[in-house]
Amino acid sequence: MPKEQPAIVWFRQDLRLEDNPALCAAAETERPLLPVYVLDDDSPGEWNMGAASRWWLHASLGKLRESLGGELQVLRGNAAAVIPELANIHDAQGVYWNRCYEPWRTARDRNIKATLRGDGRVAESFGGTMMFEPQSVTKGDGTPYRVFTPFYRKGCLEGMPAPRSPLARPTFSCVTNEQPADAIDELGLLPKMRWDEGLRQAWSPGEEGARQRLGEFIENGLSHYKDGRNFPSKPYVSRLSPHLHFGEVSPQQAWYAAESADAPANDVDHFRSELGWREFSHHLLYHFPQLPRSNLQAKFDRFPWRDDAVALRRWQKGITGYPIVDAGMRELWQTGYMHNRIRMIVGSFLVKNLLLHWHHGEDWFWDTLVDADLANNSASWQWIAGCGADAAPYFRIFNPVTQSQKFDPDGEYIRRYVPEIACLPTKHLHAPWEAPAAILDKTGVRLGVDYPEPIIDLKMSRERALQAFHGLKGSAA
User: Fold this and answer.
1) Of 233, 256, 252, nearest in space to 244 by CA
2) Does 434 participate in catalysis according to the annotation?
3) How far apart are CA 212 and CA 201, in angstroms?
4) How far apart, in whole angstroms, are the C-alpha atoms of residue 181 and residue 62?
5) I need a surface site. Which of 113, 336, 387, 388 has the fewest CB within 10 A?
6) Which domains does the chain possess?
7) 75 has which bridge partners?
8) Catalytic choice (274, 383, 399, 463)
9) 381 is annotated as an active-site residue
10) Going edge to edge, which strands form the sheet with 7-11?
């Protein structure tokens, strides 16, 4: 008898078996499945995955392969060539995948779909990464939203059907994988110099790790989410962002888990609105593909950014002399993650106090965040810089000292990541340069030796930033 044509399931940012529409559709063919992941470093251009993301991907692929009984094939190359070639080699009935919305992906995937169909094969894509697909949510006149609240409340909650219910894991069999057991290692995703110990301690990539993280958050964090999420030392953030980015859990699963939780309605609504911000970022990237590099407000094209490699490096290394900023940058380096409130503080410090281009922050986060996502990263940096859609007003400049005193009042977060000043009394921890000499002598903290003096004066830098912004008034928006 002729060999049965398999159905290829092309895994991308959906590294899970539950609630996977493409996997379910392929399983419904009742053919043997050929699960595949393609590491495509050709198509993204400058947006190849950063080092932290590659570390996560290595671990997540290993977990997915385990859950598939070892039957995941991993390949590398330009997917526009690899996927049709794989389909030809196996004489596949078709290829099934879940859509992603980065500009380079959408263009490439259209070509792949055309090639496969031209070869007489089924080529089907599904909405498996977002709750509300970005091409579907528009204003009444067909134009995209540029402000979050009407996008989310009117465009999504009122204008679209409720998110679909999560799908169960389907039943299927797989084509035998003839790749060696170390095929994932051969992708070269892990760093040659092992700087990833902190990441290994902080995270459990994979679908099971995502399921556990969601469960822990629903049980212990959701009931305090709305207010508690602002305090970086408290366990009230979901820490689901890398799991969502790699698709180890779907936003639908998170949405309905929150709905069924025994938690106050305002906390549930706020968590869901944060899922909505993720949708909004992808909406912006889909409709404004220039988002990663071009100011959405064109007047910022004339903004007088500074060039200061020394200041940039001190920001990256967490040695600015402002403890809350330094704690955030060190948390990022050690764990591949940074608390959301701290992201806003360090972002404001870079673009407003140091007056360095938001591209510098975008690029550093892209390389060091395990949750680095083109849409979220780009939209967030434009938001903090004041040049994006629904952006924070430029004159909103976070004071790192008052933010620190308000959101890390006991200094627990600072002491964890800036141990060289941990012995300072809490009163002086947020601004060590203001501590009396007697306190510094008693605690043995030598400013400029053990911990740096402030890199810049807050009042002067704030005035400089506001002056630069006022110079843009009257420019075309």
Assistant:
1) 252
2) no
3) 15
4) 10
5) 113
6) 7-129 (3.40.50.620), 130-165+209-287 (1.25.40.80), 298-470 (1.10.579.10)
7) 38
8) 274
9) yes
10) 73-76, 33-39, 7-11, 94-98, 122-126
CA 127/CA 146 separation, integer angstroms: 22
Distance in angstroms (rounded) separating the CA atoms of residues 99 and 252: 15
Question: Distance (Å, rounded) from C-alpha 371 to C-alpha 27?
Answer: 30
15 HSE (CA, 13 A, CB side): 29
Whether 158 is catalytic: no
Q: What is the pLDDT of residue 70?
A: 97
Q: pTM here? A: 0.96
Question: Widest CA span of the chain, in angstroms?
Answer: 89
Name every residue whose Cβ is closer than 8 Å to that of residue 89 and which is 6 or more positions away in sequence: none
As a whole number of angstroms, the distance between CA 166 and CA 163 comes to: 9
274: annotated active-site residue: yes
Which tokens go with 225?
A: 């989410």
pLDDT averaged per 10 residues in sequence order, the chain, 477 residues: 83 98 98 98 96 98 98 98 98 97 95 98 97 94 95 96 97 95 96 92 98 97 96 96 98 97 96 97 97 95 96 98 98 97 98 98 98 97 92 84 98 98 97 97 96 98 95 64
List the catalytic residue out of 104, 124, 133, 340.
340
Phi, psi of 63 (to 5 degrees): -65, -40
Residue 474: the pLDDT is 58
One-letter amino acid for residue 151 of the chain: F
Task: Please list, in sequence order, all residues whose beta carbon lies within 8 angstroms of the beta carbon of residue 87, skipping any fewer than 6 positions away.
Answer: 8, 94, 95, 116, 119, 121
Q: What is the CA radius of gyration of the chain?
A: 24
Task: Decide if 220 is catalytic.
Answer: no
What pLDDT does residue 477 have? Answer: 42
